[in-house]
Amino acid sequence: MNMYYENDKGKVYYEVHGKEDNSSVLVFSHGICMDHQTFIPQIDALKDQYRIIIWDMPFHGKSSPLDHNEPFIKTAADLIMELLDHTKTDKAILVGQSLGSFVTQRAAHRHPQRVTATVHIGGGSLYPGYSPLLKLLNPLMSLFITLYPDRSVFKAFASHRALKPDTRAYMQQVAEKTGKQVLSHVTQQLLTDMVNGLPEPSKKPMLLIHGDHEATLVKNILQKMKQHNPNSQLAVVHDAHHIANQDNPEEFNKILLSFLGKFQKN
Protein backbone atom coordinates (compact mmCIF):
# COMPACT_ATOMS: atom_id res chain seq x y z
CA MET A 1 0.00 0.00 0.00
CA ASN A 2 1.50 3.32 -1.12
CA MET A 3 0.18 6.33 0.77
CA TYR A 4 0.80 9.91 1.85
CA TYR A 5 0.37 11.27 5.34
CA GLU A 6 -0.13 15.05 5.52
CA ASN A 7 0.25 17.50 8.38
CA ASP A 8 1.01 21.20 8.81
CA LYS A 9 4.64 20.60 7.78
CA GLY A 10 3.81 18.97 4.44
CA LYS A 11 3.36 15.43 3.22
CA VAL A 12 5.16 12.21 4.05
CA TYR A 13 5.33 9.32 1.62
CA TYR A 14 5.15 5.83 3.08
CA GLU A 15 4.43 2.24 2.13
CA VAL A 16 2.95 -0.59 4.19
CA HIS A 17 3.85 -4.19 3.35
CA GLY A 18 3.27 -7.59 4.87
CA LYS A 19 0.73 -8.86 7.38
CA GLU A 20 -2.31 -6.74 8.20
CA ASP A 21 -3.26 -8.46 11.44
CA ASN A 22 -1.88 -7.73 14.91
CA SER A 23 1.65 -8.74 13.93
CA SER A 24 4.77 -6.96 15.14
CA VAL A 25 5.34 -3.76 13.17
CA LEU A 26 8.72 -2.60 11.84
CA VAL A 27 9.42 0.98 10.77
CA PHE A 28 12.50 1.41 8.55
CA SER A 29 14.22 4.82 8.31
CA HIS A 30 16.83 5.39 5.58
CA GLY A 31 20.12 7.26 5.44
CA ILE A 32 20.99 10.72 4.17
CA CYS A 33 20.27 11.35 0.47
CA MET A 34 18.50 7.99 0.20
CA ASP A 35 14.85 6.93 0.29
CA HIS A 36 12.40 4.16 1.17
CA GLN A 37 13.83 1.92 -1.57
CA THR A 38 16.86 1.34 0.69
CA PHE A 39 14.88 -1.45 2.35
CA ILE A 40 13.32 -3.19 -0.64
CA PRO A 41 15.65 -6.21 -0.07
CA GLN A 42 14.07 -6.70 3.36
CA ILE A 43 10.40 -6.76 2.33
CA ASP A 44 10.24 -10.26 0.82
CA ALA A 45 12.19 -11.73 3.73
CA LEU A 46 9.94 -10.18 6.38
CA LYS A 47 6.49 -9.70 4.89
CA ASP A 48 5.12 -13.13 5.83
CA GLN A 49 5.79 -12.56 9.53
CA TYR A 50 5.70 -8.81 10.07
CA ARG A 51 3.95 -5.62 9.10
CA ILE A 52 6.52 -3.33 7.48
CA ILE A 53 6.44 0.45 7.12
CA ILE A 54 9.05 2.12 4.91
CA TRP A 55 9.00 5.87 4.37
CA ASP A 56 10.76 8.88 2.92
CA MET A 57 12.08 11.31 5.51
CA PRO A 58 11.60 15.07 4.87
CA PHE A 59 13.64 16.43 1.93
CA HIS A 60 13.98 12.88 0.58
CA GLY A 61 12.18 10.82 -2.04
CA LYS A 62 8.53 11.77 -2.42
CA SER A 63 8.19 13.57 0.92
CA SER A 64 8.05 17.34 1.36
CA PRO A 65 11.01 19.42 2.49
CA LEU A 66 10.92 21.08 5.90
CA ASP A 67 11.35 24.69 6.83
CA HIS A 68 15.11 24.96 7.38
CA ASN A 69 14.48 26.30 10.88
CA GLU A 70 12.87 23.00 11.88
CA PRO A 71 15.26 20.63 13.73
CA PHE A 72 15.51 17.76 11.27
CA ILE A 73 16.16 14.76 13.51
CA LYS A 74 13.64 15.73 16.20
CA THR A 75 11.00 16.43 13.55
CA ALA A 76 11.69 13.15 11.72
CA ALA A 77 11.50 11.26 15.02
CA ASP A 78 8.10 12.81 15.78
CA LEU A 79 6.91 12.02 12.25
CA ILE A 80 7.56 8.33 12.92
CA MET A 81 5.13 8.57 15.84
CA GLU A 82 2.60 10.39 13.69
CA LEU A 83 2.89 7.61 11.11
CA LEU A 84 2.24 5.06 13.86
CA ASP A 85 -0.88 6.99 14.85
CA HIS A 86 -1.94 7.35 11.22
CA THR A 87 -1.59 3.61 10.61
CA LYS A 88 -3.27 2.77 13.95
CA THR A 89 -0.10 1.19 15.30
CA ASP A 90 0.42 1.12 19.05
CA LYS A 91 4.09 0.07 19.23
CA ALA A 92 6.82 -0.74 16.74
CA ILE A 93 10.38 -1.94 16.34
CA LEU A 94 12.37 0.88 14.76
CA VAL A 95 15.12 0.14 12.24
CA GLY A 96 17.45 2.94 11.16
CA GLN A 97 20.26 2.99 8.61
CA SER A 98 23.01 5.62 9.14
CA LEU A 99 21.10 8.92 9.53
CA GLY A 100 18.03 6.81 10.24
CA SER A 101 19.85 5.34 13.25
CA PHE A 102 20.06 8.79 14.86
CA VAL A 103 16.41 9.49 14.07
CA THR A 104 15.50 6.11 15.58
CA GLN A 105 17.39 6.88 18.80
CA ARG A 106 15.71 10.26 19.13
CA ALA A 107 12.30 8.67 18.55
CA ALA A 108 12.93 5.95 21.16
CA HIS A 109 14.04 8.56 23.69
CA ARG A 110 11.13 10.92 23.09
CA HIS A 111 8.47 8.21 22.86
CA PRO A 112 9.74 5.15 24.78
CA GLN A 113 6.24 3.79 25.35
CA ARG A 114 5.79 3.40 21.57
CA VAL A 115 9.06 1.54 20.89
CA THR A 116 9.65 -2.17 21.53
CA ALA A 117 13.27 -2.35 20.32
CA THR A 118 15.65 -0.63 17.92
CA VAL A 119 18.00 -1.77 15.14
CA HIS A 120 20.92 0.34 13.93
CA ILE A 121 22.70 -0.30 10.60
CA GLY A 122 26.00 1.54 10.30
CA GLY A 123 24.77 4.21 12.68
CA GLY A 124 26.22 5.92 15.70
CA SER A 125 25.32 6.75 19.27
CA LEU A 126 23.68 9.91 20.58
CA TYR A 127 24.73 8.95 24.10
CA PRO A 128 26.92 10.41 25.33
CA GLY A 129 26.89 13.56 23.24
CA TYR A 130 29.93 14.53 21.20
CA SER A 131 32.31 17.41 21.75
CA PRO A 132 30.97 20.87 20.78
CA LEU A 133 34.06 21.12 18.58
CA LEU A 134 32.23 18.85 16.15
CA LYS A 135 30.10 21.84 15.16
CA LEU A 136 33.22 23.43 13.73
CA LEU A 137 32.96 20.93 10.89
CA ASN A 138 29.68 22.46 9.72
CA PRO A 139 31.05 25.37 7.66
CA LEU A 140 33.91 23.23 6.35
CA MET A 141 31.55 20.43 5.35
CA SER A 142 29.19 22.88 3.68
CA LEU A 143 32.02 24.52 1.72
CA PHE A 144 33.42 21.14 0.63
CA ILE A 145 30.02 19.93 -0.61
CA THR A 146 29.37 23.22 -2.42
CA LEU A 147 32.72 23.27 -4.24
CA TYR A 148 32.84 19.58 -5.16
CA PRO A 149 31.39 18.88 -8.66
CA ASP A 150 27.86 17.47 -8.43
CA ARG A 151 28.35 14.15 -10.15
CA SER A 152 31.74 13.55 -8.55
CA VAL A 153 30.51 14.14 -5.00
CA PHE A 154 27.71 11.61 -5.33
CA LYS A 155 29.88 9.06 -7.11
CA ALA A 156 32.33 9.30 -4.20
CA PHE A 157 29.39 9.22 -1.76
CA ALA A 158 28.26 5.88 -3.20
CA SER A 159 31.66 4.25 -3.72
CA HIS A 160 32.72 4.87 -0.11
CA ARG A 161 29.54 3.35 1.35
CA ALA A 162 28.75 0.30 -0.75
CA LEU A 163 30.52 -2.70 -2.28
CA LYS A 164 28.04 -4.07 -4.81
CA PRO A 165 27.70 -2.21 -8.14
CA ASP A 166 23.90 -2.31 -7.86
CA THR A 167 23.99 -0.75 -4.40
CA ARG A 168 26.41 1.94 -5.56
CA ALA A 169 24.26 2.70 -8.60
CA TYR A 170 21.15 3.05 -6.43
CA MET A 171 22.93 5.33 -3.97
CA GLN A 172 24.39 7.57 -6.65
CA GLN A 173 21.10 7.87 -8.53
CA VAL A 174 19.01 8.74 -5.47
CA ALA A 175 21.66 11.07 -4.01
CA GLU A 176 21.92 13.02 -7.28
CA LYS A 177 18.14 13.39 -7.33
CA THR A 178 18.09 14.55 -3.70
CA GLY A 179 20.81 17.12 -4.31
CA LYS A 180 23.77 18.78 -2.64
CA GLN A 181 21.68 21.33 -0.73
CA VAL A 182 19.91 18.56 1.15
CA LEU A 183 23.20 16.73 1.76
CA SER A 184 24.73 19.90 3.21
CA HIS A 185 21.72 20.94 5.31
CA VAL A 186 20.95 17.53 6.80
CA THR A 187 24.64 16.83 7.51
CA GLN A 188 24.84 20.07 9.49
CA GLN A 189 21.67 19.15 11.36
CA LEU A 190 23.11 15.72 12.15
CA LEU A 191 26.37 17.13 13.54
CA THR A 192 24.40 19.53 15.73
CA ASP A 193 22.23 16.71 17.07
CA MET A 194 25.30 14.57 17.78
CA VAL A 195 26.65 17.38 19.98
CA ASN A 196 23.30 17.81 21.74
CA GLY A 197 23.21 14.07 22.38
CA LEU A 198 20.91 12.20 24.75
CA PRO A 199 20.94 12.46 28.56
CA GLU A 200 20.93 8.69 29.11
CA PRO A 201 21.42 5.45 27.20
CA SER A 202 18.44 3.55 25.86
CA LYS A 203 16.95 0.78 27.97
CA LYS A 204 15.33 -0.84 24.94
CA PRO A 205 16.72 -4.03 23.38
CA MET A 206 19.06 -2.99 20.60
CA LEU A 207 20.70 -4.67 17.60
CA LEU A 208 23.77 -2.98 16.16
CA ILE A 209 24.91 -4.05 12.69
CA HIS A 210 27.78 -3.05 10.43
CA GLY A 211 29.45 -4.49 7.35
CA ASP A 212 32.93 -5.97 7.59
CA HIS A 213 34.12 -3.26 5.14
CA GLU A 214 32.61 -0.45 7.24
CA ALA A 215 34.81 2.56 8.04
CA THR A 216 36.95 2.02 11.14
CA LEU A 217 35.49 5.13 12.77
CA VAL A 218 31.95 3.79 12.48
CA LYS A 219 33.01 0.35 13.77
CA ASN A 220 34.59 1.97 16.83
CA ILE A 221 31.51 4.12 17.47
CA LEU A 222 29.27 1.06 17.34
CA GLN A 223 31.59 -0.82 19.71
CA LYS A 224 31.31 2.05 22.21
CA MET A 225 27.56 2.18 21.65
CA LYS A 226 27.36 -1.47 22.66
CA GLN A 227 29.36 -0.76 25.84
CA HIS A 228 26.97 2.05 26.81
CA ASN A 229 23.88 -0.05 26.12
CA PRO A 230 24.08 -3.35 28.05
CA ASN A 231 20.80 -4.56 26.51
CA SER A 232 22.38 -4.58 23.05
CA GLN A 233 24.12 -6.98 20.69
CA LEU A 234 26.52 -6.33 17.82
CA ALA A 235 26.60 -8.30 14.58
CA VAL A 236 28.87 -8.06 11.52
CA VAL A 237 27.64 -8.68 7.96
CA HIS A 238 30.31 -10.15 5.68
CA ASP A 239 31.03 -8.78 2.21
CA ALA A 240 29.23 -5.55 3.03
CA HIS A 241 29.95 -1.87 3.62
CA HIS A 242 27.87 0.94 5.15
CA ILE A 243 24.66 -0.15 3.39
CA ALA A 244 25.02 -3.70 4.68
CA ASN A 245 21.34 -4.55 4.18
CA GLN A 246 21.74 -4.05 0.41
CA ASP A 247 25.31 -5.27 -0.06
CA ASN A 248 24.54 -8.65 1.52
CA PRO A 249 20.78 -8.87 2.09
CA GLU A 250 20.77 -12.64 2.66
CA GLU A 251 23.11 -12.51 5.66
CA PHE A 252 21.63 -9.25 6.93
CA ASN A 253 18.08 -10.61 6.81
CA LYS A 254 19.14 -13.76 8.67
CA ILE A 255 20.67 -11.69 11.48
CA LEU A 256 17.67 -9.38 11.63
CA LEU A 257 15.14 -12.23 11.72
CA SER A 258 17.03 -13.91 14.54
CA PHE A 259 16.84 -10.71 16.61
CA LEU A 260 13.19 -10.05 15.75
CA GLY A 261 12.18 -13.55 16.79
CA LYS A 262 12.40 -12.43 20.42
CA PHE A 263 9.52 -10.01 19.91
CA GLN A 264 7.28 -11.84 17.46
CA LYS A 265 3.66 -11.91 18.60
CA ASN A 266 2.65 -14.99 16.59
Please explain how this structure is put together.
The relative contact order is 0.16. 43% of the residues lie in helices and 19% in strands. By secondary structure, it is α/β, with parallel strands linked by helices. It has an eight-stranded mixed sheet, sandwiched between helices.
What order do the helices and strands follow?
EEEHEHEHEHHHHEHEHH
Could you tell me the CATH topology label: Rossmann fold
**Total count of strands:** 8
| Tally of helical segments | 10
CATH architecture: 3-Layer(aba) Sandwich
Helicity range of the residues?
A: 40-55%
Brief digest:
It is built from ten helices and eight strands.
What are the defining features of this structure?
266 residues; alpha/beta; 10 helices; Rossmann fold; globular; single chain
Spell out the blueprint of helices and strands.
Elements: E1 2-7, E2 10-18, E3 25-29, H1 40-46, E4 51-55, H2 72-86, E5 92-97, H3 99-110, E6 115-121, H4 137-147, H5 150-159, H6 165-178, H7 180-196, E7 206-211, H8 216-228, E8 232-237, H9 244-247, H10 249-260
Parallel strand pairs: 3-4, 3-5, 5-6, 6-7, 7-8
Antiparallel strand pairs: 1-2, 2-4
Helix pairs in contact: 2-3, 4-7, 5-6
